[in-house]
Amino acid sequence: MTQASISQRDALAAYRIYFILGALFICSLVVSNLIFQKFFYWDFFGLYRFEISVGILPYPITFLITDLLSEMYGKKKANQVVTAGIFASLFSLLIVYTSAAVPATSWSPVNDALFNTVFGATAVAVLASMLAYLFAQYIDIQLYHFWKNLTKGKHLWLRNNFSTFFSQFLDTITVLLLLCSFGKIEWERFTALLISGFLFKVLIAICDTPFMYLGVYIFRKRFNLAPNQELGSEIEVFQKEEKI
Length: 244
Hints:
Layout: H1 8-35, E1 39-44, E2 48-53, H2 59-73, H3 75-101, H4 112-119, H5 122-150, H6 156-181, H7 190-207, H8 209-223, H9 232-242
Antiparallel strand pairs: 1-2
Helix pairs in contact: 1-2, 1-3, 2-3, 2-5, 2-8, 3-5, 5-6, 6-7
């Protein structure tokens, strides 16, 4: 059965939502690279003590967004947001380098030493994040569509979680390997941080599954979509017609 096209007005709304989700994704990614040097602990109901970087907090948001984009807009549109996130991170690194290069005034509340203490490892963080991010996000999208095709669009929970579990493990282990190799974290902390980081991401991925279902439900109801119908092709038609 042929899937019905959405109206031009709905295509514009879908186009705007796509940009909002993309902006949230890029913001979460850039912020995680800037704040990663602070580590915190969380006692999970006395069962396990997590010791992880605060930079990990925005990451579940990025994977939820890419899964939602993959489901509702298709692989191509999801990959475009991931690529935009890479350029945004590199540009943020350039801004940090420039800010560190100019000398602070004598009355500056943040002097050069303090600034370098907070942001000095950002280059290593971005490098580590970029390599891990390239692996994890693109693999997440590929695995998401692999499970979607395999299950013929059924079992949303399965592709949402299974794609995220594997890609998050790659992300965690790659970042830690690079940070330990550059001497930013001691090797004796590697195993504990890997376990804490991965378990935390798995826990968050499971918790965000209801939000994934809610997001898909809202999209399909708002745009009156058929099962497995995607908005990516619809907004591409809109872009061509409006010459965007």
